Structure formats: C-alpha cells, structure tokens
Amino acid sequence: MTPKLASLVAVLFLLTACTTVVEGHPHEQSDGGEGWAAFAPLRSSAPAAAPAAPATVRANELGRVPVLMYHRIVTEPESVYDRTPDDFRAELERLDREGYVPVSAADFTAGRIDVPAGTHPVVLTFDDGDPSQFALGPDGNPVPGTAVAIMLDFARSHPRFRPVATFYVNAEPFGDPGGARTIPWLLDHGFDVGNHTRTHANLREADEQTAQAEIGELDALIRRASPRANPTTIALQFGIHPRPKELALQGAGYRYQGAFLVGSNPSASPFTADFDPLNIPRIRSQGPTGEEAEYGSAVWLDKLAQNADSRYTSDGDPARISYPKSDTDEVAAKFRDRVNPY
C-alpha cells in the first residue's frame, strides 16, 4: 500500500465512525461540510508497505482494464445510458467486492497505476457534465444522490474504495457557467476533469479548424476554472474521431495522451503493444438485460471474473510491471526498462 493510500484508508476509517446507515446505504451526519473536506488529496510520510511477490497474487499488469462509461444518474431512467442511484451503488459494491480500485483516466493513460497488490484498476468516466453526476448545494457540499455524493458516501464505509473518477465536460459543466465552482471542487477533492468538446460536437462533420476550436476552447475553459487544471484526455462524442484522427490528441492549444471511445469492451493495459491511445474503448454501465446488454458492464464484469487471469492484477509496486514470463512479447517498447517477468 502506498503512503497516500495508507493515509486515505486511515481517514476513511475514522470517518466511518461518524456515519449512520439508512435503508442499507451510508448516510452522512451533518458536519458543516468538514466531512467532505476530508476527502481532499492527502499526503503522508509513512513508509510504503513492501510489494508482494508477484506470483503470490498472480500479478498480470499486461491484463485488461474495464473503463466504465456513465451518463445520467436518475431515479427514472429514460434511455439505456441512464442508471438509477441504486444501480450505481450496486455497481460500486460489485467492483469493490471483486477487488477493483478506481484510478483516473489521466493516471491510466500515463501508466501511473498505483493500486494494492492483488487488486485490479478500473476507470470510472462520466460524460456530458450532467447535474445528476455532480452539483454543489448552497452549503458548498455535493448534492445528495449525485454520483459524486454517492461515491464519497460509499468510500466512508468501504476503506479500499477510492472516490476517484474522470468527468468529461462540455461548456457550462453541471449547469455551472464556466465550471467556476464545480471544476475547482472536483480537482481539489481528487477527481479528474477531461475534455468532451465545447458543444458536444460530432467532430467527423467538422473541418480541421472547427474541430480544433471545439477541443481547444473547452480545454481553455477547464484551465480558466482552476489553476490546478491540466486536462490530459478526451472522450469523443459517439466514439467518432475528427479528420485527421490525430487532431483528437493534438491541435491548436491542446495536447493529450488519450482519446476514449464509446466502445464495448475492456481496454488493453497501457503497458502493452496493443494499447492505442487514439482508440481507448469503454464499456457502458448497464445491467445484465436490455438493449445490447452483451456489451454492458454487468456482462463484461462476469466475463472478467470467469477469466481472472485476463484481468490486470497489480503487484503493488507502481515502479515495476509484473506479468507471467510467457507474455513478455506483449510489452510496449517504451516500458521495457520496468519489466518484472516471473
């Protein structure tokens, strides 16, 4: 366990003592906002735990990683893209129970995957900046029932879970002009903010100048909202690239390290030769039934559980890349100096 994670676990343990349970869900007691502040990024000087021997946890850091895609979190879904608050809580319960630990899209694409030995990274992504994902009340705290509030409540009673996600926003994210309140709050509390273009544009229908403006102007909006902002990834509307495709990652005023699609399957590990930063697939959050459920999260999590060796499983040491020796040929050339086959 890293120093940062150890510190976070300790804080979460203390916070759990101040949490009651209402109808099976953690319920925050009134604390004037101090409880939410405890989820701000933490630092610790405590020594890190010794990494596990890779074979003991069947480490495979070349395995597949689920990148889950959410849109609205609402009590009355209107499309297959909507999930209820109970659906969302249930999916978090499953992820935690099966050993998944959230990492941001920025850290995933950069290969900064620091999760405990024997666990699996998962990337939680939210498109469109909908207020059901995140909104701040008059008291400056997340509105109950939003995705952010649910994640923070969940973390209070599940110490291994990290309230980490990436929000892909358009102009006026979360109904907040310029993201002036919401973007700084998210960044100050350990969340990640990425680009979803200024007007939710279909970039294939735009000329090069317009496509770059759609991406570059939204990038500038995020950076104006907070001096801490440094967006490094984009989620492409409908999974459609601009022309040429490379404009998704680099153009006038922006330079990114990953472009996420709509997709329908887990992503390759960023350490493999198969990882394509221009085409990172995502899995729509969905139950086991319904339209195209075979491509949704419930079915894919079942498949990953049934083929456990295919999942990315951490050795607990972010400085090395551990995997069975038979998979050496799959390592991307730029990571060969970090390999640890066993």
How would you characterize this protein structure?
The chain is built from nine helices and 14 strands. Helix content is 25%, strand content 14%. The chain is α/β, with parallel strands linked by helices. The chain is globular and about 50 Å long. The strands form five sheets. Strands 3, 4, 5, 6, 7 and 12 form a six-stranded parallel beta sheet that branches. Strand 1 and strand 2 (25-28) form a beta hairpin.
Number of helices: 9
Low-pLDDT runs of 5+ residues are 1-34, 40-47
Percentage of residues assigned to helices: 25-40%
Largest sheet: 6 strands, parallel
Average pLDDT: 89
Give the helices and strands as they follow along the chain: HEEHHEHEHEHEHEHEEEEEHEE
Beta-strand content bin: 5-15%
The first-to-last residue Cα distance is 21 Å
Shape: globular
Number of strands: 14
Structural class: alpha/beta
What is the rounded Rg?
Answer: 19 Å
